[in-house]
Design a protein that fits this description.
The complex is a heterodimer of chains A (351) and B (278). With 351 residues, chain A is mainly alpha-helical. Chain A has 13 helices and two strands, in the order ααααββααααααααα. Helix content of chain B is 81%, strand content 0%. Classes of the chains: A mainly alpha (351), B mainly alpha (278).
Protein backbone atom coordinates (compact mmCIF):
# COMPACT_ATOMS: atom_id res chain seq x y z
CA UNK A 1 0.00 0.00 0.00
CA UNK A 2 1.46 3.32 -1.08
CA UNK A 3 0.88 5.45 1.99
CA UNK A 4 0.98 2.60 4.49
CA UNK A 5 -2.45 3.37 5.92
CA UNK A 6 -5.20 0.83 5.89
CA UNK A 7 -8.05 3.30 5.91
CA UNK A 8 -7.93 4.88 2.44
CA UNK A 9 -11.39 6.01 1.41
CA UNK A 10 -11.79 9.83 1.49
CA UNK A 11 -15.32 9.57 2.93
CA UNK A 12 -14.04 7.44 5.81
CA UNK A 13 -11.35 10.03 6.55
CA UNK A 14 -13.87 12.86 6.27
CA UNK A 15 -16.10 11.20 8.88
CA UNK A 16 -13.05 10.64 11.08
CA UNK A 17 -12.10 14.33 10.73
CA UNK A 18 -15.65 15.44 11.61
CA UNK A 19 -15.63 13.18 14.68
CA UNK A 20 -12.20 14.39 15.82
CA UNK A 21 -13.16 18.04 15.32
CA UNK A 22 -16.52 17.80 17.10
CA UNK A 23 -15.07 15.78 20.01
CA UNK A 24 -12.14 18.15 20.47
CA UNK A 25 -14.07 21.37 20.26
CA UNK A 26 -16.94 20.23 22.50
CA UNK A 27 -14.70 19.42 25.41
CA UNK A 28 -12.94 21.59 27.96
CA UNK A 29 -12.41 18.75 30.43
CA UNK A 30 -8.64 18.33 30.88
CA UNK A 31 -8.87 14.52 31.17
CA UNK A 32 -10.88 14.25 27.97
CA UNK A 33 -8.60 16.66 26.11
CA UNK A 34 -5.48 14.73 27.17
CA UNK A 35 -7.15 11.49 26.06
CA UNK A 36 -8.12 12.98 22.69
CA UNK A 37 -4.64 14.43 22.13
CA UNK A 38 -3.07 11.05 22.91
CA UNK A 39 -5.42 9.37 20.42
CA UNK A 40 -4.54 11.93 17.75
CA UNK A 41 -0.80 11.64 18.41
CA UNK A 42 -1.02 7.85 18.06
CA UNK A 43 -2.78 8.20 14.69
CA UNK A 44 -0.34 10.90 13.63
CA UNK A 45 2.71 8.70 14.23
CA UNK A 46 1.07 5.82 12.38
CA UNK A 47 1.33 7.82 9.16
CA UNK A 48 4.37 9.02 7.22
CA UNK A 49 5.48 12.64 7.41
CA UNK A 50 5.46 15.00 4.45
CA UNK A 51 8.25 17.40 3.54
CA UNK A 52 7.75 21.18 3.49
CA UNK A 53 4.65 20.95 5.69
CA UNK A 54 3.66 24.21 7.38
CA UNK A 55 2.40 22.22 10.35
CA UNK A 56 4.97 21.16 12.88
CA UNK A 57 3.73 19.38 16.04
CA UNK A 58 6.43 21.01 18.17
CA UNK A 59 5.53 24.48 16.86
CA UNK A 60 1.81 23.77 17.29
CA UNK A 61 2.38 22.59 20.88
CA UNK A 62 3.42 26.16 21.71
CA UNK A 63 -0.25 27.06 21.32
CA UNK A 64 -0.93 25.72 24.81
CA UNK A 65 1.39 28.08 26.76
CA UNK A 66 0.66 31.00 24.42
CA UNK A 67 -3.07 30.59 24.86
CA UNK A 68 -2.65 30.25 28.64
CA UNK A 69 -0.59 33.45 28.86
CA UNK A 70 -2.94 35.46 26.62
CA UNK A 71 -6.04 34.37 28.51
CA UNK A 72 -4.37 35.11 31.84
CA UNK A 73 -3.48 38.63 30.69
CA UNK A 74 -6.98 39.40 29.45
CA UNK A 75 -9.29 37.59 31.87
CA UNK A 76 -10.01 38.95 35.29
CA UNK A 77 -12.30 36.12 36.43
CA UNK A 78 -11.35 33.42 38.95
CA UNK A 79 -10.80 33.36 42.73
CA UNK A 80 -7.23 32.05 42.95
CA UNK A 81 -5.10 35.15 42.41
CA UNK A 82 -1.48 34.33 41.57
CA UNK A 83 -0.19 37.87 41.04
CA UNK A 84 -1.41 41.39 40.33
CA UNK A 85 -0.23 43.46 37.37
CA UNK A 86 -0.11 47.24 37.96
CA UNK A 87 -3.48 48.85 37.23
CA UNK A 88 -1.63 51.56 35.28
CA UNK A 89 -1.16 49.11 32.35
CA UNK A 90 -4.20 49.71 30.14
CA UNK A 91 -6.48 46.64 29.76
CA UNK A 92 -3.82 44.24 31.03
CA UNK A 93 -3.57 45.55 34.59
CA UNK A 94 -5.26 43.52 37.35
CA UNK A 95 -5.27 40.07 38.91
CA UNK A 96 -3.79 37.09 37.09
CA UNK A 97 -5.72 34.01 38.22
CA UNK A 98 -5.00 30.29 38.16
CA UNK A 99 -8.44 29.68 36.65
CA UNK A 100 -7.76 31.98 33.70
CA UNK A 101 -4.40 30.29 33.03
CA UNK A 102 -6.06 26.87 33.18
CA UNK A 103 -8.90 27.83 30.86
CA UNK A 104 -6.44 29.38 28.40
CA UNK A 105 -4.32 26.22 28.41
CA UNK A 106 -7.43 24.10 27.79
CA UNK A 107 -8.37 26.32 24.83
CA UNK A 108 -4.83 25.88 23.50
CA UNK A 109 -5.14 22.08 23.86
CA UNK A 110 -8.43 22.11 21.93
CA UNK A 111 -6.82 24.21 19.21
CA UNK A 112 -3.82 21.86 19.09
CA UNK A 113 -6.24 18.94 18.70
CA UNK A 114 -7.91 20.62 15.72
CA UNK A 115 -4.53 21.30 14.09
CA UNK A 116 -3.44 17.69 14.62
CA UNK A 117 -6.68 16.26 13.20
CA UNK A 118 -6.40 18.27 9.96
CA UNK A 119 -2.68 17.50 9.65
CA UNK A 120 -3.34 13.76 10.01
CA UNK A 121 -5.99 13.71 7.27
CA UNK A 122 -3.67 15.65 5.00
CA UNK A 123 -0.89 13.11 5.60
CA UNK A 124 -3.16 10.15 5.07
CA UNK A 125 -5.08 11.21 1.98
CA UNK A 126 -3.38 11.44 -1.41
CA UNK A 127 -3.96 14.68 -3.31
CA UNK A 128 -6.21 13.00 -5.89
CA UNK A 129 -8.48 11.69 -3.13
CA UNK A 130 -8.66 15.13 -1.57
CA UNK A 131 -9.71 16.66 -4.91
CA UNK A 132 -12.30 13.88 -5.33
CA UNK A 133 -13.94 15.15 -2.13
CA UNK A 134 -14.94 18.42 -3.82
CA UNK A 135 -18.68 18.30 -4.59
CA UNK A 136 -19.53 17.68 -8.23
CA UNK A 137 -21.62 20.87 -8.09
CA UNK A 138 -18.29 22.72 -8.15
CA UNK A 139 -17.11 20.94 -11.29
CA UNK A 140 -15.49 23.96 -13.04
CA UNK A 141 -13.66 24.84 -9.82
CA UNK A 142 -12.40 21.27 -9.62
CA UNK A 143 -11.05 21.60 -13.17
CA UNK A 144 -9.25 24.81 -12.14
CA UNK A 145 -7.72 22.99 -9.16
CA UNK A 146 -6.58 20.08 -11.30
CA UNK A 147 -4.97 22.48 -13.78
CA UNK A 148 -3.27 24.35 -10.92
CA UNK A 149 -1.96 21.20 -9.27
CA UNK A 150 -0.64 19.76 -12.54
CA UNK A 151 0.88 23.07 -13.65
CA UNK A 152 2.67 23.60 -10.32
CA UNK A 153 5.71 21.37 -11.09
CA UNK A 154 5.87 22.91 -14.57
CA UNK A 155 5.91 26.39 -13.02
CA UNK A 156 8.83 25.39 -10.79
CA UNK A 157 10.73 23.99 -13.80
CA UNK A 158 9.97 27.15 -15.74
CA UNK A 159 11.26 29.30 -12.86
CA UNK A 160 14.54 27.37 -12.89
CA UNK A 161 14.82 27.68 -16.68
CA UNK A 162 14.22 31.46 -16.57
CA UNK A 163 16.75 31.86 -13.76
CA UNK A 164 19.38 29.88 -15.71
CA UNK A 165 18.69 31.81 -18.92
CA UNK A 166 19.07 35.16 -17.14
CA UNK A 167 22.23 33.95 -15.38
CA UNK A 168 23.76 33.13 -18.78
CA UNK A 169 23.07 36.75 -19.76
CA UNK A 170 24.98 37.87 -16.65
CA UNK A 171 21.96 38.75 -14.53
CA UNK A 172 22.41 38.53 -10.78
CA UNK A 173 19.92 39.23 -8.00
CA UNK A 174 21.31 41.98 -5.75
CA UNK A 175 18.11 43.76 -4.74
CA UNK A 176 14.37 43.23 -4.87
CA UNK A 177 14.18 45.17 -8.16
CA UNK A 178 16.41 42.55 -9.80
CA UNK A 179 13.57 40.02 -9.46
CA UNK A 180 11.62 41.70 -12.27
CA UNK A 181 13.63 40.07 -15.13
CA UNK A 182 12.83 36.72 -13.50
CA UNK A 183 9.17 37.41 -12.68
CA UNK A 184 8.02 38.82 -16.02
CA UNK A 185 9.14 35.94 -18.30
CA UNK A 186 7.56 33.54 -15.83
CA UNK A 187 4.27 35.44 -15.89
CA UNK A 188 4.25 35.78 -19.69
CA UNK A 189 5.08 32.07 -20.03
CA UNK A 190 2.27 31.13 -17.66
CA UNK A 191 -0.27 33.27 -19.53
CA UNK A 192 0.86 31.85 -22.87
CA UNK A 193 0.50 28.35 -21.43
CA UNK A 194 -3.05 29.23 -20.31
CA UNK A 195 -3.94 30.33 -23.86
CA UNK A 196 -2.62 27.12 -25.37
CA UNK A 197 -4.38 25.05 -22.72
CA UNK A 198 -7.69 26.84 -23.36
CA UNK A 199 -7.39 26.18 -27.08
CA UNK A 200 -6.58 22.53 -26.46
CA UNK A 201 -9.56 22.19 -24.11
CA UNK A 202 -11.88 23.88 -26.61
CA UNK A 203 -10.60 21.62 -29.38
CA UNK A 204 -11.48 18.59 -27.25
CA UNK A 205 -15.02 19.87 -26.75
CA UNK A 206 -14.69 21.23 -23.23
CA UNK A 207 -17.03 24.16 -22.62
CA UNK A 208 -20.35 25.26 -21.23
CA UNK A 209 -22.84 22.86 -22.70
CA UNK A 210 -26.03 24.42 -21.38
CA UNK A 211 -27.36 27.54 -19.71
CA UNK A 212 -27.49 26.98 -15.98
CA UNK A 213 -30.66 27.71 -14.05
CA UNK A 214 -30.56 30.23 -11.21
CA UNK A 215 -32.78 28.09 -8.96
CA UNK A 216 -29.88 26.33 -7.16
CA UNK A 217 -28.37 29.69 -6.27
CA UNK A 218 -31.65 30.91 -4.73
CA UNK A 219 -32.00 27.62 -2.83
CA UNK A 220 -28.43 27.98 -1.58
CA UNK A 221 -29.05 31.53 -0.38
CA UNK A 222 -32.27 30.51 1.41
CA UNK A 223 -30.45 27.57 3.01
CA UNK A 224 -27.58 29.71 4.29
CA UNK A 225 -30.00 32.24 5.77
CA UNK A 226 -31.94 29.42 7.46
CA UNK A 227 -28.73 28.05 9.03
CA UNK A 228 -27.81 31.56 10.20
CA UNK A 229 -31.31 32.10 11.61
CA UNK A 230 -31.11 28.76 13.44
CA UNK A 231 -27.81 29.70 15.05
CA UNK A 232 -29.15 33.13 16.10
CA UNK A 233 -32.31 31.54 17.54
CA UNK A 234 -30.18 29.16 19.63
CA UNK A 235 -27.71 31.80 20.76
CA UNK A 236 -29.82 34.91 21.30
CA UNK A 237 -33.33 33.68 22.13
CA UNK A 238 -32.23 30.26 23.49
CA UNK A 239 -34.90 28.49 21.42
CA UNK A 240 -32.81 25.39 20.95
CA UNK A 241 -35.41 23.16 19.28
CA UNK A 242 -36.59 25.84 16.84
CA UNK A 243 -32.96 26.66 16.10
CA UNK A 244 -32.13 23.06 15.26
CA UNK A 245 -35.23 22.83 13.02
CA UNK A 246 -34.12 25.94 11.11
CA UNK A 247 -30.57 24.58 10.77
CA UNK A 248 -31.86 21.21 9.53
CA UNK A 249 -34.19 22.94 7.05
CA UNK A 250 -31.32 25.11 5.81
CA UNK A 251 -29.07 22.11 5.31
CA UNK A 252 -31.86 20.36 3.38
CA UNK A 253 -32.18 23.37 1.05
CA UNK A 254 -28.41 23.49 0.55
CA UNK A 255 -28.34 19.76 -0.22
CA UNK A 256 -31.14 20.24 -2.78
CA UNK A 257 -29.18 23.06 -4.44
CA UNK A 258 -25.98 21.02 -4.60
CA UNK A 259 -27.93 18.04 -5.95
CA UNK A 260 -29.42 20.14 -8.77
CA UNK A 261 -25.98 21.43 -9.70
CA UNK A 262 -24.55 17.94 -9.47
CA UNK A 263 -27.13 16.59 -11.93
CA UNK A 264 -26.35 19.47 -14.30
CA UNK A 265 -22.65 18.51 -14.37
CA UNK A 266 -22.47 14.95 -15.73
CA UNK A 267 -19.10 13.32 -15.10
CA UNK A 268 -17.71 9.88 -15.75
CA UNK A 269 -15.45 8.22 -13.21
CA UNK A 270 -12.36 6.48 -14.51
CA UNK A 271 -11.51 4.58 -11.38
CA UNK A 272 -14.14 4.61 -8.64
CA UNK A 273 -12.94 4.19 -5.07
CA UNK A 274 -14.96 1.73 -3.02
CA UNK A 275 -15.25 1.32 0.72
CA UNK A 276 -13.00 -1.47 1.97
CA UNK A 277 -13.43 -3.43 5.19
CA UNK A 278 -10.81 -1.26 6.88
CA UNK A 279 -12.76 1.85 5.92
CA UNK A 280 -15.92 0.40 7.49
CA UNK A 281 -13.98 -0.26 10.74
CA UNK A 282 -12.63 3.29 10.61
CA UNK A 283 -16.12 4.77 10.15
CA UNK A 284 -17.39 2.61 13.00
CA UNK A 285 -14.61 3.89 15.28
CA UNK A 286 -15.38 7.50 14.33
CA UNK A 287 -19.10 7.05 14.96
CA UNK A 288 -18.32 5.52 18.35
CA UNK A 289 -16.45 8.68 19.32
CA UNK A 290 -19.29 10.83 18.00
CA UNK A 291 -21.81 8.88 20.10
CA UNK A 292 -19.72 9.70 23.17
CA UNK A 293 -20.18 13.42 22.51
CA UNK A 294 -23.67 13.61 21.05
CA UNK A 295 -25.69 10.82 22.70
CA UNK A 296 -27.32 11.41 26.13
CA UNK A 297 -25.05 8.98 27.95
CA UNK A 298 -24.59 8.93 31.75
CA UNK A 299 -21.72 11.23 32.75
CA UNK A 300 -21.90 13.30 29.56
CA UNK A 301 -21.90 16.47 31.68
CA UNK A 302 -18.17 16.01 32.14
CA UNK A 303 -17.53 17.55 28.71
CA UNK A 304 -18.74 20.98 29.89
CA UNK A 305 -16.22 21.76 32.61
CA UNK A 306 -15.03 25.21 33.56
CA UNK A 307 -12.45 26.15 36.19
CA UNK A 308 -14.39 29.33 37.05
CA UNK A 309 -15.01 30.71 39.61
CA UNK A 310 -12.81 28.45 41.80
CA UNK A 311 -10.62 25.63 40.53
CA UNK A 312 -12.11 22.20 41.23
CA UNK A 313 -11.43 18.61 40.24
CA UNK A 314 -13.01 17.62 36.88
CA UNK A 315 -15.18 14.50 36.60
CA UNK A 316 -14.40 11.60 34.28
CA UNK A 317 -16.75 8.88 32.99
CA UNK A 318 -14.74 5.76 31.96
CA UNK A 319 -17.40 4.57 29.48
CA UNK A 320 -17.18 7.84 27.53
CA UNK A 321 -13.39 7.65 27.67
CA UNK A 322 -13.47 4.19 26.09
CA UNK A 323 -15.86 5.33 23.36
CA UNK A 324 -13.60 8.30 22.52
CA UNK A 325 -10.73 5.85 21.94
CA UNK A 326 -12.59 4.91 18.73
CA UNK A 327 -10.63 7.75 17.15
CA UNK A 328 -7.51 5.54 17.38
CA UNK A 329 -9.00 3.05 14.89
CA UNK A 330 -6.97 4.26 11.84
CA UNK A 331 -3.72 3.72 13.77
CA UNK A 332 -4.79 0.27 14.95
CA UNK A 333 -5.76 -0.70 11.41
CA UNK A 334 -2.42 0.48 10.04
CA UNK A 335 -0.55 -1.49 12.70
CA UNK A 336 -2.68 -4.57 12.05
CA UNK A 337 -2.23 -4.41 8.26
CA UNK A 338 1.55 -3.81 8.62
CA UNK A 339 1.93 -6.80 10.94
CA UNK A 340 -0.18 -8.97 8.65
CA UNK A 341 1.90 -7.94 5.61
CA UNK A 342 5.14 -8.66 7.49
CA UNK A 343 3.83 -12.10 8.55
CA UNK A 344 2.81 -12.90 4.97
CA UNK A 345 6.22 -11.77 3.72
CA UNK A 346 8.00 -13.95 6.31
CA UNK A 347 5.88 -16.93 5.29
CA UNK A 348 6.69 -16.36 1.63
CA UNK A 349 10.42 -16.04 2.41
CA UNK A 350 10.31 -19.25 4.42
CA UNK A 351 8.68 -21.07 1.53
CA UNK B 1 -42.13 33.64 -24.73
CA UNK B 2 -39.77 33.30 -27.69
CA UNK B 3 -36.16 32.14 -27.45
CA UNK B 4 -34.69 35.63 -27.26
CA UNK B 5 -37.05 36.67 -24.45
CA UNK B 6 -36.25 33.48 -22.57
CA UNK B 7 -32.53 34.22 -22.78
CA UNK B 8 -33.10 37.82 -21.55
CA UNK B 9 -35.29 36.55 -18.70
CA UNK B 10 -32.68 33.97 -17.71
CA UNK B 11 -29.92 36.60 -17.85
CA UNK B 12 -31.92 38.94 -15.57
CA UNK B 13 -32.49 36.09 -13.10
CA UNK B 14 -28.77 35.26 -13.14
CA UNK B 15 -27.97 38.89 -12.33
CA UNK B 16 -30.49 38.94 -9.47
CA UNK B 17 -29.11 35.64 -8.12
CA UNK B 18 -25.61 37.04 -8.32
CA UNK B 19 -26.48 40.24 -6.45
CA UNK B 20 -28.41 38.21 -3.86
CA UNK B 21 -25.40 35.89 -3.40
CA UNK B 22 -23.02 38.81 -2.90
CA UNK B 23 -25.41 40.42 -0.38
CA UNK B 24 -25.86 37.10 1.46
CA UNK B 25 -22.20 36.31 1.82
CA UNK B 26 -21.50 39.87 2.93
CA UNK B 27 -24.15 39.68 5.67
CA UNK B 28 -23.28 36.14 6.74
CA UNK B 29 -19.55 36.88 6.60
CA UNK B 30 -19.95 39.94 8.81
CA UNK B 31 -22.19 38.15 11.33
CA UNK B 32 -19.84 35.15 11.45
CA UNK B 33 -16.56 37.03 11.68
CA UNK B 34 -17.92 39.55 14.19
CA UNK B 35 -19.60 36.96 16.44
CA UNK B 36 -17.36 37.66 19.48
CA UNK B 37 -18.77 41.20 19.58
CA UNK B 38 -22.45 40.41 19.40
CA UNK B 39 -22.30 37.32 21.62
CA UNK B 40 -20.74 39.59 24.24
CA UNK B 41 -23.53 42.09 23.64
CA UNK B 42 -26.36 39.57 24.16
CA UNK B 43 -24.53 38.15 27.16
CA UNK B 44 -25.45 34.55 26.46
CA UNK B 45 -23.02 32.73 28.70
CA UNK B 46 -24.43 29.35 27.87
CA UNK B 47 -23.27 26.22 26.13
CA UNK B 48 -24.69 27.69 22.89
CA UNK B 49 -21.82 30.16 22.70
CA UNK B 50 -19.33 27.31 22.95
CA UNK B 51 -20.42 25.99 19.56
CA UNK B 52 -19.95 29.46 18.03
CA UNK B 53 -16.55 28.64 16.44
CA UNK B 54 -17.98 25.51 14.79
CA UNK B 55 -21.07 27.36 13.57
CA UNK B 56 -18.90 30.21 12.32
CA UNK B 57 -16.68 27.80 10.40
CA UNK B 58 -19.73 26.08 8.90
CA UNK B 59 -21.31 29.37 7.81
CA UNK B 60 -18.08 30.66 6.30
CA UNK B 61 -17.59 27.37 4.41
CA UNK B 62 -21.18 27.52 3.10
CA UNK B 63 -20.78 31.17 2.06
CA UNK B 64 -17.56 30.24 0.29
CA UNK B 65 -19.37 27.49 -1.64
CA UNK B 66 -22.16 29.95 -2.57
CA UNK B 67 -19.63 32.47 -3.84
CA UNK B 68 -17.67 29.85 -5.80
CA UNK B 69 -20.89 28.63 -7.43
CA UNK B 70 -21.91 32.19 -8.28
CA UNK B 71 -18.53 32.88 -9.83
CA UNK B 72 -18.44 29.64 -11.80
CA UNK B 73 -22.03 30.19 -13.05
CA UNK B 74 -21.47 33.75 -14.16
CA UNK B 75 -17.87 34.13 -15.11
CA UNK B 76 -16.05 30.98 -16.04
CA UNK B 77 -15.58 29.91 -19.62
CA UNK B 78 -12.84 27.63 -20.82
CA UNK B 79 -10.27 30.42 -21.27
CA UNK B 80 -10.84 31.79 -17.80
CA UNK B 81 -10.68 28.30 -16.30
CA UNK B 82 -7.27 27.74 -17.89
CA UNK B 83 -6.06 31.22 -16.91
CA UNK B 84 -7.27 30.84 -13.35
CA UNK B 85 -5.64 27.42 -13.00
CA UNK B 86 -2.29 28.63 -14.29
CA UNK B 87 -2.24 31.85 -12.22
CA UNK B 88 -3.30 29.90 -9.12
CA UNK B 89 -0.40 27.50 -9.70
CA UNK B 90 2.06 30.34 -10.17
CA UNK B 91 0.89 32.05 -7.00
CA UNK B 92 0.99 28.78 -5.07
CA UNK B 93 4.58 28.31 -6.23
CA UNK B 94 5.33 31.68 -4.62
CA UNK B 95 3.80 30.41 -1.36
CA UNK B 96 5.94 27.31 -1.67
CA UNK B 97 9.02 29.51 -2.01
CA UNK B 98 7.86 31.50 1.00
CA UNK B 99 7.64 28.35 3.14
CA UNK B 100 11.14 27.30 2.05
CA UNK B 101 12.61 30.82 2.55
CA UNK B 102 10.38 32.68 5.03
CA UNK B 103 10.34 36.46 4.77
CA UNK B 104 10.33 38.84 7.74
CA UNK B 105 7.15 38.91 9.86
CA UNK B 106 3.95 38.65 7.89
CA UNK B 107 5.60 39.33 4.53
CA UNK B 108 4.18 37.11 1.80
CA UNK B 109 4.42 37.48 -1.99
CA UNK B 110 1.06 35.83 -2.78
CA UNK B 111 -1.20 38.83 -2.17
CA UNK B 112 0.58 40.85 -4.83
CA UNK B 113 -0.61 38.59 -7.66
CA UNK B 114 -4.14 38.29 -6.19
CA UNK B 115 -4.46 42.08 -6.16
CA UNK B 116 -3.09 42.47 -9.69
CA UNK B 117 -5.25 39.59 -11.00
CA UNK B 118 -8.43 41.01 -9.46
CA UNK B 119 -7.55 44.52 -10.64
CA UNK B 120 -7.12 43.44 -14.26
CA UNK B 121 -9.53 40.52 -14.72
CA UNK B 122 -12.41 41.70 -12.51
CA UNK B 123 -14.02 41.12 -9.12
CA UNK B 124 -15.28 37.55 -9.58
CA UNK B 125 -11.99 36.41 -11.07
CA UNK B 126 -10.16 38.13 -8.20
CA UNK B 127 -12.31 36.34 -5.64
CA UNK B 128 -11.62 32.97 -7.23
CA UNK B 129 -7.90 33.67 -7.59
CA UNK B 130 -7.65 34.65 -3.93
CA UNK B 131 -9.67 31.75 -2.59
CA UNK B 132 -8.15 29.07 -4.81
CA UNK B 133 -4.58 30.27 -4.30
CA UNK B 134 -4.96 29.79 -0.57
CA UNK B 135 -6.57 26.37 -1.11
CA UNK B 136 -3.95 25.00 -3.53
CA UNK B 137 -1.00 26.42 -1.63
CA UNK B 138 -2.37 24.99 1.62
CA UNK B 139 -2.76 21.56 0.03
CA UNK B 140 0.75 21.69 -1.42
CA UNK B 141 2.51 23.02 1.66
CA UNK B 142 0.54 21.02 4.24
CA UNK B 143 -1.27 24.06 5.59
CA UNK B 144 -4.82 22.69 5.55
CA UNK B 145 -6.60 23.37 8.81
CA UNK B 146 -9.73 24.78 10.39
CA UNK B 147 -8.47 28.24 9.50
CA UNK B 148 -8.45 27.52 5.75
CA UNK B 149 -12.08 28.54 4.90
CA UNK B 150 -11.47 31.83 6.71
CA UNK B 151 -8.20 32.41 4.84
CA UNK B 152 -9.87 31.57 1.52
CA UNK B 153 -12.79 33.85 2.28
CA UNK B 154 -10.56 36.77 3.31
CA UNK B 155 -8.18 36.38 0.37
CA UNK B 156 -11.27 36.14 -1.86
CA UNK B 157 -12.53 39.43 -0.42
CA UNK B 158 -9.14 40.93 -1.21
CA UNK B 159 -9.36 39.85 -4.87
CA UNK B 160 -13.01 40.91 -5.06
CA UNK B 161 -12.28 44.41 -3.78
CA UNK B 162 -9.27 44.68 -6.11
CA UNK B 163 -11.70 43.97 -8.96
CA UNK B 164 -13.94 46.80 -7.78
CA UNK B 165 -10.90 49.06 -7.65
CA UNK B 166 -10.12 48.09 -11.25
CA UNK B 167 -13.49 49.46 -12.35
CA UNK B 168 -12.26 52.96 -11.56
CA UNK B 169 -9.05 52.56 -13.53
CA UNK B 170 -8.66 53.35 -17.23
CA UNK B 171 -8.87 49.83 -18.60
CA UNK B 172 -8.66 50.57 -22.32
CA UNK B 173 -4.94 51.36 -22.10
CA UNK B 174 -2.45 48.66 -21.09
CA UNK B 175 -0.32 51.08 -19.09
CA UNK B 176 -1.06 51.68 -15.41
CA UNK B 177 -1.51 55.39 -14.74
CA UNK B 178 0.52 57.01 -12.00
CA UNK B 179 -2.62 57.70 -9.98
CA UNK B 180 -3.89 54.13 -10.30
CA UNK B 181 -0.46 52.86 -9.31
CA UNK B 182 -0.46 54.98 -6.19
CA UNK B 183 -4.00 53.85 -5.27
CA UNK B 184 -2.97 50.23 -5.82
CA UNK B 185 0.02 50.62 -3.46
CA UNK B 186 -2.20 52.11 -0.73
CA UNK B 187 -4.78 49.39 -1.35
CA UNK B 188 -2.13 46.67 -0.90
CA UNK B 189 -0.82 48.25 2.30
CA UNK B 190 -4.34 48.54 3.75
CA UNK B 191 -5.08 44.91 2.94
CA UNK B 192 -1.81 43.90 4.61
CA UNK B 193 -3.30 45.07 7.91
CA UNK B 194 -6.91 44.14 7.07
CA UNK B 195 -6.05 40.51 6.28
CA UNK B 196 -4.36 40.11 9.66
CA UNK B 197 -7.17 41.90 11.51
CA UNK B 198 -9.87 39.75 9.89
CA UNK B 199 -7.95 36.51 10.42
CA UNK B 200 -7.37 37.45 14.06
CA UNK B 201 -11.14 37.48 14.48
CA UNK B 202 -10.97 33.77 13.73
CA UNK B 203 -8.21 32.94 16.21
CA UNK B 204 -9.23 35.38 18.93
CA UNK B 205 -12.19 33.41 20.32
CA UNK B 206 -9.99 30.31 20.59
CA UNK B 207 -7.34 32.00 22.66
CA UNK B 208 -8.80 34.91 24.58
CA UNK B 209 -12.46 35.60 23.92
CA UNK B 210 -13.47 32.63 26.02
CA UNK B 211 -13.85 35.29 28.66
CA UNK B 212 -16.40 37.06 26.47
CA UNK B 213 -18.44 33.90 26.29
CA UNK B 214 -17.89 32.34 29.69
CA UNK B 215 -16.34 34.60 32.22
CA UNK B 216 -17.28 38.08 31.11
CA UNK B 217 -20.44 37.86 29.06
CA UNK B 218 -21.51 41.19 30.53
CA UNK B 219 -18.97 43.03 28.38
CA UNK B 220 -20.64 45.29 25.85
CA UNK B 221 -19.75 45.40 22.17
CA UNK B 222 -17.69 48.60 22.61
CA UNK B 223 -15.59 47.17 25.45
CA UNK B 224 -15.09 43.95 23.46
CA UNK B 225 -13.96 46.04 20.48
CA UNK B 226 -11.53 47.93 22.70
CA UNK B 227 -10.11 44.67 24.00
CA UNK B 228 -9.83 43.30 20.49
CA UNK B 229 -7.92 46.42 19.43
CA UNK B 230 -5.52 45.90 22.33
CA UNK B 231 -5.16 42.20 21.45
CA UNK B 232 -4.46 43.06 17.82
CA UNK B 233 -1.95 45.77 18.74
CA UNK B 234 -0.12 43.46 21.15
CA UNK B 235 -0.06 40.26 19.11
CA UNK B 236 -0.31 41.14 15.41
CA UNK B 237 0.35 44.76 14.54
CA UNK B 238 4.13 44.41 14.19
CA UNK B 239 3.70 41.17 12.23
CA UNK B 240 1.18 42.73 9.84
CA UNK B 241 3.37 45.79 9.43
CA UNK B 242 5.81 43.64 7.44
CA UNK B 243 2.91 42.23 5.42
CA UNK B 244 1.59 45.70 4.56
CA UNK B 245 5.05 47.06 3.76
CA UNK B 246 5.80 43.97 1.64
CA UNK B 247 2.57 44.36 -0.35
CA UNK B 248 3.25 48.05 -0.92
CA UNK B 249 6.87 47.41 -1.94
CA UNK B 250 6.01 44.62 -4.38
CA UNK B 251 3.21 46.67 -5.90
CA UNK B 252 5.44 49.72 -6.16
CA UNK B 253 8.19 47.80 -7.95
CA UNK B 254 6.36 45.28 -10.10
CA UNK B 255 2.69 46.31 -10.51
CA UNK B 256 3.17 48.47 -13.66
CA UNK B 257 4.90 45.68 -15.58
CA UNK B 258 2.62 42.91 -14.30
CA UNK B 259 -0.60 44.88 -14.94
CA UNK B 260 0.60 45.82 -18.44
CA UNK B 261 1.36 42.17 -19.27
CA UNK B 262 -1.95 40.97 -17.86
CA UNK B 263 -3.94 43.61 -19.75
CA UNK B 264 -2.27 42.65 -23.03
CA UNK B 265 -3.16 39.02 -22.47
CA UNK B 266 -6.68 39.97 -21.40
CA UNK B 267 -7.22 41.47 -24.85
CA UNK B 268 -6.27 38.10 -26.33
CA UNK B 269 -8.44 36.23 -23.83
CA UNK B 270 -11.60 38.31 -23.92
CA UNK B 271 -12.95 38.01 -27.42
CA UNK B 272 -16.54 37.23 -28.35
CA UNK B 273 -17.84 35.27 -31.33
CA UNK B 274 -20.76 37.11 -32.93
CA UNK B 275 -23.08 35.50 -35.44
CA UNK B 276 -23.28 37.52 -38.60
CA UNK B 277 -26.84 38.81 -38.97
CA UNK B 278 -28.25 38.59 -42.49
Amino acid sequence: METGNAMTHPIAWLIWLAAATICTWNSRNPFVLVLLLLALIIVRFAHPQREHALFSPMRAALLVPISAILNALWTRAGDTVLLRLPESIPLLGGAVTLEAITYGALNGMALLGLFLAFAIVQQALPLTSAIALIPRALHPITVVLVIAVTYLPLAQRQARAVRDAQAVRGHTVRSLRDWQPLLMPMLAGALEHALQLAEAMSARGYGRSRNMSSTPQFLLIAGIFAVLAGWLLRTITHQSLLGWVAIAGGLALISAALWQLRVAAPRTTFKATRLQVADIYGIFGSLTALIAVLAPLPGKDMFVWTPYPTMHWPAFAPLIGVLLCGLCTPALLTRFIDNRDKTNQTDQDAQ
Amino acid sequence: MDAEEAVTHRSALTDIASVATHATISIVGLVAFLHPFWTAQVGSATEHTQDAPLMTAALIALSLIAMLIDAQQAALDVRQIALLGVLTAMNSALRFAEVALPGPGGFTPIFFLIICGGFVFGARFGFLLGALTLLVSAVVTGGVGPWLPFQMFTAGWMGLSAGWLGLFSKTHAPMLTRRSHFVLIIFGAVWGFAYGAVMNLWSWPYTVAAEAGVAAAHLGAFETLRRYAAYYALTSFAWDLFGAAGNALLLALFAPAVVRTMRRFRMRFVFVWRLETP
